[in-house]
Amino acid sequence: MRFAIITGVSKGLGEAAAKIFMESGIHVVGVSRSNNETLEKYASEHDVTFQHVSCDLGDPRKTEDAFTQISRDILSRKPSTVYLINNAAVLEPIGKSMAIKGSDLAYHVQVNTVAPMIITNLFLQHATELDIPLISTTITSGAAERPMYGWSAYCSTKASINMYTQTAALEQDQLKTQNKVIAFSPGVMDTNMQEKIRSTSKNEFADVEKFKEYKEKNMLKSPDTVAGVLVDILTDETGIINGKIYSVKDYL
Predict the structure, then answer these.
(1) pTM to 2 decimals?
(2) Where are the beta strands (DSSP E) in 21-74?
């Protein structure tokens, strides 16, 4: 028995990954503020289970409480492997760094960096205690590797996730656990986030015309295609390189 826990499961990459996991006979726990009834039906069709948990990842205490319970529930069933996909993220606030409100910045950092760290830390702790292999990934971005005008928050949080991934993986290697911690950069996909980017003014985001061009020239990848690459990487358990920042562009 194997389980996948996916945040941001209601749409986009999270929804696509959930379906592929279920097609592979893997049970899924999906975490998002709104439920996706399509996934419940999909699970029934593939003889697996889908459980939805509502959680606002912008609240650190609620995040810790929810995932403490999820990890205990899942790991108590003694699965052969657990896959954790920290997919949920926010793009806003977009704009000049000097114009960003402190409260908006704090929420952004909580969702994009603190929440994935809390969640991964909890699962690493409990999986190690029970000697159950955990394969964890957080969705990162090419924005982690270069500055972009108007994206000071997003670039910074994705860069911090990359360093967290490498550090946590280093610890797991030195502790000689079975756990793997990686990050995955999905490139530009045809999602709601891309719609938000294209609706941004050039005054707030200097590269907005480039992202409009991605859509006009049909350069956006399908979430289903990208999710297929991600799931293939995660389920190739012997081939995973701990701490690696994987990129979809190396596969497509």
Answers:
(1) 0.93
(2) 27-31, 50-53
3-state secondary structure (DSSP) of residue 209 = helix
User: 48-57, 175-184, 187-196 — which is least confidently predicted?
Assistant: 187-196
Q: What is the largest CA-CA distance in the chain?
A: 52
Which of 64-78, 144-158, 160-174, 203-217 is least confident? 203-217
Whether 114 is in a domain gets the answer yes
Q: What pLDDT sits at residue 193?
A: 72
**Is the residue at 162 inside a domain?**
yes
CATH number at residue 102: 3.40.50.720
Residue 8 pLDDT exceeds 80:
yes
Domain total for the chain?
1
Annotated catalytic residue, options 154, 164, 214, 246: 154
213 located within any domain: no
Domain that holds residue 88: 2-186+223-250
207 occurs within a structural domain: no
Q: Is 246 a catalytic residue?
A: no
Q: What percent of the chain has pLDDT over 90?
A: 83
Q: How far is CA 94 from CA 26, 32, 98, 196, 214, in A?
A: 37, 22, 11, 10, 19
Residue 62 CA to residue 64 CA, distance in Å, equals 5
